[in-house]
Task: inverse folding
């Protein structure tokens, strides 16, 4: 049995990049929700912050769903 180190390295790099991107998007979504609360407390609407947070969470959900699809299929 031989290990294809090149393919293993590619999988590692792609997985690491996906983790960094998903963590960043999720953190930005949480920050957007926090900024919305602050904006509403200061008399603003916070619509832009909420929209940004929802978009970030939607992208996270789509990427996770696609990953599950690739594993199951």
Result:
């Amino acid at each position: 049995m031989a290990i294809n180190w090149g393919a293993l390295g590619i999988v590692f790099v792609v997985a690491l990049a996906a983790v960094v991107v998903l963590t960043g998007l999720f953190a930005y979504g949480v920050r957007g929700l926090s900024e919305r609360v602050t904006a509403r407390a200061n008399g603003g609407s916070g619509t832009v912050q909420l929209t940004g947070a929802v978009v970030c969470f939607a992208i996270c959900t789509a990427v996770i769903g696609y990953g599950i699809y690739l594993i199951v299929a």
User: Anything to note?
Assistant: Helices lie at 5-41, 47-72.
